[in-house]
Structure formats: structure tokens, C-alpha cells
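Quick one:
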Amino acid sequence: MNWLAPLYPFIEITRPVNVAITFLSVFVGAMVSRSAWSPYFMDVCWAAFSAGLIAAGGNVINDYCDRNLDRIEKPKRPLPAGRFSARVAVWWAFICFSAGILASFAVPFPGMVIAITAAVCLVLYSYIWKRQPLIGNLAVAFIASLAFIYGGLAVGKIDVAIWAAMLAFLFHLGREITKDLEDREGDAAMGVQTLVVKYGVLTGRIAATLALVCLAIALTLPYLIGPFRLNYLLISCIGVGPIIAFTLVWVWVKREPEQLHLVNTVQKIGMFIGLIALYAGRPAAEFWQL
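Output:
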């Protein structure tokens, strides 16, 4: 199987776990929006592939823009480790973005608008917004929330998907600020003016806490005042609640940036649990039908 080895860096640089989360988020956005979504199956598939490809392109262009920074913070990434060239990364990002936007033409309007908006925002984030306090964090949270709206658009109904998008926005906002705490030394060395670098670690901790507390409160709303069912609330409280609590404690207790890396891994697990909760508690599902 050595002939596959040259392909590994192409996959690795896209951050396949993040791409998978985006792909699944589109499907969940569709399934929570319309109980009888199977007639729209191909539209949802096109939307999921489109979103996954655009997410891949965004991850590649982000690695390209961060290649010097990653020599300090993440030297094992494909570009700083020398497994991928910067020139190839630009072309690979272009191919992923182009394929994702082309796939969006098969999604009902305004799916194409969502796809182009996400792609443009990802490029602006990598080149400009990431280096501005809080703007970059808000941009990533907004882009992540679009995946659920995209899924809803694919089935022609977004009202329920908006609940999922709200939760995704708050989750990713807290996660991005937490990542700024983890990356603060490298960001400072490269002159990247994140919220933490410009205003200090205490400000970053307070901002992350506010976002995560808002998320903890918001977790209950889709059940209390929204259309989601009890199994959504149970899975969210049992699965996502402890991860929010762990993140809050870890952010305040751990002082060294490398100690915060564990939070990133735990939060990714939380994303998958959140997707399961949304699917299991979707308005069309009975308690015993997961």
C-alpha cells in the first residue's frame, strides 16, 4: 500500500476530523429540519460534499497562512514538517474551494450563496480576520454555524436548523477563544493580535467563560422553548454538559499553553455528542427512536 503514501499529506492537511464534523453537521441540519427528508437525499448529499470540500479548502489555506507560526506552535503539521509544499497547498486549497462551490450548484437556491459566503469568509479569516482580536473567533463560529443552515436549505426548511446553528456558534466561539489561550506564545512571537495576546490571558479566560456559560444555558432552550424532544436534553446534559464544565475548569486551572491542548481534543468529542443529541432529539423523533 506504499503507493498511497503520497496522498496522506493531501488528506492530513485538510484536517479530516474537522471535515467529517462539517459533513455530518449538514446532514443533521437537514434531518432536524424535515422529518421526511429522504426525498431530498441527493440535495443533502451535494450540500454535505460541498460543505466538506469548502471546509477542507479553508483548513488548507489556514495552514498555508500559518506555516511560519506553526513552526513554533505545531511543527508536526504537514507544511512546517516539510511533507507538503506551500505552492502545492495553495493549489490544493483552490481545488477544494472550487469543487465545493461547483457542488453547491446542485443544492437548491440560495445554497450557492451560502457556499460562496463560507469560502470567502474562510479566506478572509486566514489572511486578515485571524489576526484581529475577537473578529477571527466570531468569523469561525459564524462559518461553523452555516453548516446546519446549509442542511436545512437542502430540504427547503431552516427554522429548526437555526436552533442547531445557534448552539454551534456558541460552541465554536468558546472553543476558538480557548485555542487562542493555547496558542498565545506562538501568536505573540509572530505578532498575531488575538484577543489573548492584545488584552491578556485573564481577558481571554473571561471571554471563554462567558461564551461557554451562554452555551450551557442555550443547551436547554431547544427543549424548553423550542421543538426538540426530551432525548435531546438528556444527551446534551449528560454528554456535552460535563465537557463544558471540564473546559471551564481547565481554562482557569491550567497555566501552561500546552496543558490546554487536551481541551481541544475533548471539545471535538463534544461536537460529535452534540450532533448525536440533535439527531436523537429532532422534532420528528419519539423518545425511543434514536
